[in-house]
Amino acid sequence: MGILRNGLMPAACVVMLILPAQAADIKPRVRELVTERCSLCHGVDGEAATSVYPRLAAQNETYVVKQLKDFRDGRRKGTMNEMAKDLTDDEIAGLAGYFSGKKPQSRRPSDPDFAAVGKYIFHSGNRYSGIAPCASCHGEAGRGTEQLPRLAGQHPAYVEGQLMEFVSGSRTNDKSIMHAVATKLTTLEMKAVASYIGGLE
After folding, report:
1. Which of 49, 59, 175, 185 is the most exposed, fewest CB within 10 Å of its CB?
2. Which residues, listed in sequence order, are joined to residue 131 by a DSSP beta bridge?
3. Which helix (H) or strand (E) holds 124?
């Protein structure tokens, strides 16, 4: 690391010294947020306290960052607006990294025959009503992409609730494609797909 003749470090070197310290400081803050705020609904390990709340364990990091910023900035409406309103970008990134690194738990559907209906729709869609396979965007294993959410292992009740919000328009972000898809699903199809998704690992 070079020192200028006047005894001062170049600005770039100063920045390099500051950044690691900031990174070290964010870890205790993330731990504090998880313990005092996130765990109340999502659990310490992201497995959620009840089916009302989504499981965050192994959720795609970039997707979590986007959703938290959308809640913070008002693009997505819900109870999370209050929880996210004071989060910094660094805190959001830290939380996303924390939950994405957690190992998800696997759960079997209570009614395998019903879930099999959802499996067909998830992988093959419904050509009679113009429904595309869920897997075409969220992947054959339901693990999504950096931009699209992991669905595998999600609470069926939460998945069904989000589909209904896409239908009604009360989901205020990421709805351009999902509104068109969800409005073509029958109630039975929604429940079956949600059941199948809940059993994916």
Report:
1. 49
2. 126
3. helix 112-124
Q: In this structure, what token pair is assigned to residue 165?
A: 């919000």
CB 56 within 8 A of CB 48: yes
**Phi then psi for 131, rounded to 5 degrees?**
-90, 125
- Read out DSSP for 51-98? TTS---TT--HHHHHHHHHHHHHTSS-STHHHHHTT--HHHHHHHHHH
DSSP string, 4-26: -TTSPPPHHHHHHHHHHHHHHHH
- Digit-by-digit pLDDT tens for the chain (201 residues) are 444 444 444 444 433 444 444 455 669 999 999 999 999 999 999 999 799 999 999 999 999 999 999 999 999 999 999 999 999 999 999 999 999 999 998 789 999 999 999 999 999 999 999 999 999 999 999 999 999 999 999 999 999 999 999 999 999 999 989 999 999 999 999 999 999 999 999
Contact between 195 and 156 (Cβ < 8 Å): yes
* Residue appearing with tokens 């999902």: 178
Q: Which tokens in the block code for residue 171?
A: 């989901």
What is the C-alpha to C-alpha distance for residues 174 and 182, in angstroms, rounded to an integer? 12
